[in-house]
Amino acid sequence: MSRRALAACAAAACLLLSGCERNKLRGYQRTVGEAVPRIEAGVGVKFKTPPVIEERSKEEVAAFIARELADTARLARLAAHQSVYKMLGVIPDSLDLRKLTADLLTEQVLGYYDPKTKVLYVVKGAPRANVGLIIWHELVHALQDQYVNVDSLLSQPDNDRATAAQALLEGEASLEQIQAFAGPDNANAATAMFSNWEKTREVLRQNKQIMPAYSASPFFVQEQLLFPYLSGAEFVRHYKDSRAGKPPFLATIPASTEQIVSRAAYFGATKDEPLTITLPAPKGAATRYEDVLGEFEIRLFVFEHLQSQEEAVTAAAGWGGDRYQVLRTPKGDGLAWITMWDTPLDAVEFLTSLQHIVGVRYPDAKGVGVAGASHATRYDTYARSIVVQGTDGAGHAAVIYIDVPRGTSTDVVNLANVRASR
Asked: How far is Cα 418 from Cα 386, in angstroms, rounded to an integer?
């Protein structure tokens, strides 16, 4: 998935809360001229080169999105994410994630900054009032890209690390955009917007006529889309309040979504750096894809099934690292997922929630112990075999979750060969 293109969609979506071609470009340039000095003052660094702005038709934007989604590696990643999210039960089995992504990208994009071309594109015919704020938002990205490699940060192979970087970049742009909307003499209005994120979510979900694709999206997808803006803006605001000096994107980039959602993990005396987990080749299966969920997506997973914000936060707290493999078996896709935790209590809390989730998803599947494995429970449904186990992995309290087609061995992970490092 193109994070920057999808980001442009979400930035346009957030505008629902606020409200001749050469001549238009001159108008855009006037907006740029007004925005640049205020952005430089707010961010704390100056543009090295003047920002470039161009117009694109809706057809040209649609062609750009199609090219982005046609990339072979991106298609494989989308297919794998679709598979793991369906096995975790956070998106419907009938959902086509690639089509939904394309629909989201084309629904409300008014403008976007492309790190490859170094150009800020504005969509022809976009409402002028909204375009002004989009230009402001995307100019921040153009400024960031003159100091760090934005495309590289957002293309990291670790999904959780890339999401954390995106939250920092989008949080900075959202903060400047909100302050632009409120005005330099109305800090209270900006603060009020920060304190009412739940209203932001509800407004977006209820705008079915304006944003049908977003409104019809699963909760998991909606929250993934909003996270970099809402949680990212909170992170950047706290960074600016607590630390003078470098802009956040020139400081240490957050290494996990845990560092975004937990202030102690990033701003504490010692940063809580995530574990990098290496999984061995699975037994009796092939690895189709592997990646990291991270604390934020684990929260969403728990909330999706248990509908308790408190339990979701508690279950994901103390996350140390995780790694999953989408498995190719003779009978279809499977999942091997190991999470590691800061303390044994953190692991037990997640294990308990995980068992609760399996019970909710498969109420007719009776859990039974696994011979030769302590703290392990097996559940057999008509189509799947699932094992949830508390254990020790590479010296850390760990929880293993296996989900494979019924009739396939659940003994797919050799724990002795699991590695973890910081």
From this structure: 20
